[in-house]
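Annotated sample (chain length 489).
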Amino acid sequence: MAKQLEGPILPFLRLDAAVALPKFRQVQDQLRMAILRGHLRAGARLPASRILAEELGLSRQTLVRVLENLKAEGYLEARQGAGTFVSQALPRQLPKPHFTLGESDASPRLSRIGALSRGVSAEIGQMEQKPFLPNQPALDRFPFAVWRKCWNAVTRSGRATMGYGDVAGELVLRQRIAEYLALHRRDSCDPEQIVITPGGHAAFTLAALALADPGDGIWFEDPGPVTTSNLFRTLGLHLCPVDVDSDGMDVAGAMARHPDARLAFVMPSRHHPLGVTLSLPRRLALLEWARANDAWIIEDDYDSEFRYDGAPLPSMRSVDSHDRIIYAGSFSKALYPGIRVGYLVLPPQLVGAFRNLSGLIHRSVPVETQLALAEFIGGGHFASHLRRMRGLYAERREAFQEAGRTALAGLARVDCSESGLNALAWLEGSRGDRAVHRAVLDAGLQCYPLSDYTIATRRPGALILGYAGVPAERMKPYLGRLAEALSQP
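Output written by the structure step:
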């Protein structure tokens, strides 16, 4: 059998006849520089000297000389029977030229959307995973073995998952999602009403682009998720902040102040970060406003799977008789954030436009991920995982409440809603939550200050804390460390 052509292609190797250096020195210097710059990392395998010699038009003896010199300098190492590799003794992250992200003296000309993006941040989801990181599921309890079996089952044939997929998403996944929504959310829909997206934010982006023009108003709960408000700002929408109380979004106040808005973004099942639910009278009032004003409602079904006092609440879409709701769901909290699969359930009259727009923007979510997820749901593994996680998160929520009331007494009031993965710690006195946030980070913990989520309405200082990713037995010591951070002047 012919020997395989192994090793990376090295396009940076160039021989220049006009250069006075000998050819072996040119190759040697270029390989050394590629290693120093990190283009060839520690442990990377090089092509065989025979292959490199043929590609560069040099003798094999010349290439052997180059490789032997670099071995002597410590950049390369030989492994018996395996080949030549970049030395493992080198740091995996070699020093690189200093580079600073930010404005330069000659700022590039950007589009309107590009210019808007300068003033907002998308970093909230990239925080280091420390104890009490908000919105963090228990990744250590994810059924990796079952997921791997589902993945292997659908990718075994190879070619079936290598092409472009349906722009609306694979039909089998849309069928499984429709079955799940009918059974667990009391919300029946046809699979043809569903469009699969690469995550929840992609779903919001698709809805905003399809239904609103730059300058159009969008009702947005205040406080509300900062990356989502930044997204709508960047898309050129006029953010209309709406107050939130114990009954959810103040729909009457929004109608009085912003009656002509084109969209409303709402989290009726569990508001983030306050944890309240939208009352039925306000749901009906919101639906009537949308009908009367030819407006649309984006329903973010945030954390609906994890409710600890009774069954999950029905979606708002399930009581929409006017077809004004665009329902958005995702698997980031129920499974794991990196899966990047979300979906929209659309009114029938919008399906065609959303399918086409999704095909233009996203093309399709990776087919193998969709098919593996469909297998996971169809095999009953998703429902079983949710059941286990509800029990686990209820246990961790109880441990957080019990230990938090003691550890944070006199420092903060613990507020755990009936659902979700997070809690609020309302700071005693008039302490600013941003300053306290820095002390919490210094203590090796994580949280978000509520102030980062507010738009126009000032509220008392509070910290958003995630308990779902913290084992119950670790809750007390971590809360003790949090109390020490909050005790600092």
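Annotation: The chain has three domains: 23-86, 142-383, 388-487.
Annotation: The longest strand covers residues 238-245.
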